[in-house]
Specification:
263 residues, alpha+beta, eight-stranded mixed sheet
Amino acid sequence: MLIHLTAQAELLTAILKEGQVQAKNPFGAAFNVDVLASSQTVACFSEMAALNSVATLADQHGGYGLGFTKAWMQAQGAAPVWYLPRDSAVQTEFFNTVRELAFHNRPDPSHPLWRVTPFVDYPRDAAPNEVAAPYDWRWEREWRIRGGLHFQPDDIALLFAPESQHAWAIELWKQETIEGWAGYMPPLVDTHWPRDQQETVIRQGPAVVEVEFPEWTESWIDGADTAPSGDLGSAWDDERRDLQAELRDELNGWLDEMARDDI
C-alpha cells in the first residue's frame, strides 16, 4: 500500500476535488539543474509496509491522506526511490555521470537519464563536527511518480483522517466523489488507532454511503425518472461492484501478507 499524508484537512479536500496529488517540487539526483526542473518534479508517497508504520509516518507528515494499491501505482508510473549511499562506488559513478551531462555540458532535456534521476537520491549521515544536517529518509520507504498522480475515486484504497474528523471526512467524500444517490467509500482509518482496530476496518473493505438530499428537493425527487428503485444495489452497475469486491480482496491479501511477515 502506498500512502500520501498531509497535516491539513484543506489539502486533503483539494486533492479529492482535483482528483490528483500534485507534483510541486523537484527531487532526486538532478533536482538542482534549473533547465530540468519540470522533468524532476514528483509527487511523493510512502510504502505502508506495516500497520504500525503509519503512525510514525503521520507524526512526520500529518494524519490526513489517502492510499493506493502498489500494483495500481506501478501501472501509473510510480517507482521506489533508489538510495545510493554517498561516496559508495555506485553513487560516485552515478553522480559523475549526472555531473558530466548536466554541468560539464548543456543538458539535453530529452536524454533518458533525466527520466531516472527523480528516483535516485543520496542519503547522508551527520558527520562529526559537521554543520550540515543528516539527509536520510530511507525509513519512509519512499516512492515517487513524475508529474503528479491523477486518479478516480474508485482508485483510492484507503482514506485517512483523525477519528474526531471522520464525520467531516464522510461528508467530504459524499460531496466530492459520489455522483447520484449512493456510492462506495474506501475504509476510513485513523493513523493512530491500535493495529487491531485498523485491521478490522480495513478488512471490511469499501462501505456503502448514501447521499442525503435537503427537504426542498423531495417533490423534485418524487417525480424524477432517475429516482432510486428502493434496491440500493441498482444505484451502480455490476462492474463497479466487482471492482470494489476486488479491492476488498486486495486489502485482505495485503493484511494477510503483513501478518505472515510478522511471524
